[in-house]
Write a structure and sequence with these properties.
Low-confidence stretches: none
Radius of gyration: 13 Å
Number of strands: 3
Helix content: 55-70%
Strand order of the largest sheet: 1-2-3
Distance between the termini: 41 Å
Strand content: 5-15%
Largest sheet: 3 strands, mixed
Number of helices: 5
Structural class: mainly alpha
Mean pLDDT: 95
Shape: globular
Length: 108
């Protein structure tokens, strides 16, 4: 199984950093990041619809890579790797929550 290292480009990375409220990614990985839709929507209001649309496109590409079970995915930025099915599901759930928050923020 190949290991794919993913980068998180801006503006998606900026959104994740904005939502990093529980701890820091370097310590707690994705558990440091809030997926509360209200928090994500606050970022959306702050940056505007162009950045939100771009972040959603970046997120869709990232989800596609993570869903490909022929690869193990690692992200230094998120401090997460899909070493097993549970870790992959955890990351996909995290990304889906972000997608829902961005979609709500895009509609606002």
């Amino acid at each position: 199984m190949a290991v794919v290292s993913v980068e998180i480009p801006s503006p998606l990375s900026k959104c994740i950093i904005f939502c990093e409220v529980a701890c820091v990614r370097e310590c707690c990985g994705i558990d440091a990041v809030s997926t509360d839709p209200a928090h994500i929507e606050a970022w959306c209001r702050q940056v505007g619809s162009v950045a939100v649309v771009e972040a959603r496109l970046q997120l869709a590409e990232l989800i596609e890579v993570v869903e490909d079970r022929s690869n193990r995915v690692t992200s230094t930025f998120l401090n997460h790797r899909t070493h097993d099915g549970a870790a992959r599901r955890e990351l996909l759930d995290f990304l889906a929550a972000f997608d829902a928050g961005l979609a709500a923020g895009d509609a606002s």
